[in-house]
Design goal:
Elements lengths: L3 E5 L6 E2 L14 H6 L3 H4 L3 E2 L1 H12 L3 E6 L6 H9 L6 E3 L18 H11 L5 E7 L2 H9 L3 E4 H5 L5 H11 L8
Parallel strand pairs: 1-4, 1-6, 4-5, 6-7
Antiparallel strand pairs: 2-3
Length: about 180
């Protein structure tokens, strides 16, 4: 039975895709550049970030967790192929193309990363308790806290400032014991 709802940002949290990223002076992602570089070849040059993948895999193996990718970019079929290739099976995804954004945000590209994630979480309720959330940007972590999640900065985990095993141990202490998926 699912009890906990967890969030995982993608880029610079569990996936290194810097080779196809470009940012504006304000730090926001250049979405048109991103889309132009979201080719099969480029996406398959992305690689997983070891520490956070271990954390993600811990949650994916728990039968009581509903695990959701939440990203400021728009996911395409090529992204889902990447997930499947790397055996990353999210229960759901929230992104710029998500129906959870609502019709009042016709120009979804004008929303800042944290604004987008706030709207998505306001409109999304899978019916489970708030668990853990992981992102590499403080403004997004603040949004996750606002929505009731225990939030971790993925940079601290990926750069070994916080051991990923400590994060898993903390989650094990907070969440009751549960059967594991094979």
């Amino acid at each position: 039975m699912r009890n906990w709802f967890n969030l995982f940002d993608l880029d610079d949290t569990i996936i290194n895709s810097k080779h196809r990223s470009k940012f504006h002076a304000d730090g926001s992602l250049d979405i048109p550049h991103w889309e132009e570089n979201s080719t099969f070849k480029n996406i398959h040059q992305d690689h997983l970030i070891f520490n956070m993948i271990n954390v993600l895999n811990y949650f994916l193996k728990r039968t009581d967790c509903w695990n959701v990718a939440i990203t400021s970019r728009e996911l395409t079929d090529l992204d889902y192929i990447f997930f499947k290739t790397h055996n990353i099976m999210f229960d759901d995804t929230l992104h710029r193309g998500s129906s959870h954004l609502g019709t009042e945000y016709v120009n979804r590209y004008k929303l800042a990363d944290y604004e987008l994630k706030d709207v998505l979480l306001t409109n999304y309720d899978p019916g489970y308790g708030k668990g853990f959330a992981f992102d590499d940007k403080q403004c997004n972590l603040d949004v996750f806290h606002k929505h009731g999640f225990v939030a971790y900065n993925a940079n601290h985990i990926n750069y070994n400032e916080i051991e990923y095993t400590d994060v898993i141990s903390s989650a094990s202490d907070r969440l009751p014991n549960t059967p594991w998926k094979n």
